[in-house]
Amino acid sequence: MSDTILPQSPSRRRFVSVAAAAVAAGSLSQLAFAETNQAIIEVAQPSGGGDKTAIRPLRVHVPESQLIDLRRRIKATRWPDRETVMDDSQGVPLAMIQEFARHWATDYDWRRCEAKLNSLPNFVTEIDGLDIHFIHVRSKHENAMPLIVTHGWPGSVIEMLKIIDPLTNPTAYGASASDPFHLVIPSLPGYGFSGKPTTTGWGPERTARAWVVLMKRLGYEKFAAQGGDLGGVVANVMGKQAPPELLGIHVNFPATVPPAIAKALAAGDPPPSGLSDDEKDAYEQLGSAARKRRAYALEMGTRPQTLYGLADSPVALASWLLDHGDGYVQPAAALTSAVFGRPINGESAGDLTRNDLLDDITLYWLTNTGISAARFYWESHFNFLAAADVSVPAAVSVFPRENYQAPRSWTERAYHNLVYYNRLDKGGHFAAWEQPQLFAEEVRAGLRPLRT
Predict the structure, then answer these.
(1) Is 377 a catalytic residue?
(2) Does the active-site annotation cover 429?
(3) What is the CATH number of domain 111-261+390-451?
(4) What is the pLDDT of residue 11?
(5) Is residue 229 flagged as an active site residue?
(6) What contacts 332, CB < 8 A, 6 or more positions away?
(7) Considering 88, 131, 179, 229, which one is annotated as catalytic?
């Protein structure tokens, strides 16, 4: 395990003094679960109601009664009729979700995930009035580059756990000692153990600014940012905002679609003339996604509060998080293959397992963040894939089973200082989950130019 000592800085000294005072005073605050008023995490608080911007250690402990209630609710699910088709064209098939629920209620062990989380250094700090949770793992290598990695939806910090050691401890994975990272992995506002915004305004732009505050508070004067899915959106916004502390970004969910292409897609037009083969392929992929795979995003982007079932039914939450409108093809094929434990339609789950999915879904359930997470879409007011217009150094990795394979031509126009571009031969939308070693290699290679 990599060295997890925080950098020596005023924030570090404040953290040590606050934590010591909290322990001495026995002062622990608790995040209450809305319906039962039972705590699921413990956070050291400054004595006497002191500075909430201090870096405060967090520990996860879910009362057994919460897990008993979860299993009871799963077993009490009122099931609908079976779908009237033989495929998944009407949504998550009944047999699939019933078997998933059976495993969740009888065989799944949350304590294993809880122990893994508690083996890592978890913290909370208040930024702009909101508690932000993050994992902070420092490399043993002194030349490590500080890197903030942001998860997406329907993910959480859970989807990033397998990349922590490869990126902080590269020599243990056959990589160079010149390529290490100090990792900061925050939970997006409204996700996991971060606070749930009670007012509007916590979208990608405010989050991007908060990440800069977080990294500076940890003592990092220069750092890079990485992300996929919504994490890629935040990283792109950070790149566009271009704070002086930002060395550059790496994204595996690039925003490259030119305005003329976006306009043609919105109109449902055939591919414009003059496109290269790669550009035609991307146009068809984007068109298919717009026609078949965006219902969940439209609902969350317009009416997230209507999704009350995500707070009331574990099975409703699980089916919503699993389904991207294309369960047996990409990008959700890896999730479906993980549920079944075997490739579906030839689509491999890679290193992603059914228990990985349940760790993530159970975290959503225990924190009651199905709707607060969905609101991040409501707070986002731009096309996630529209050309990013980023001038800071940028690295782009294109995984073959992503929503679309961004052509190099579009990528070079969207990222004006493109320092790395690579098309992979395996992996998909959930690259850090599906192919953690390959993903780590891409992050190392993509951000290597920034080290000089």
Answers:
(1) yes
(2) yes
(3) 3.40.50.1820
(4) 38
(5) yes
(6) 322, 323, 324, 325, 326, 429
(7) 229
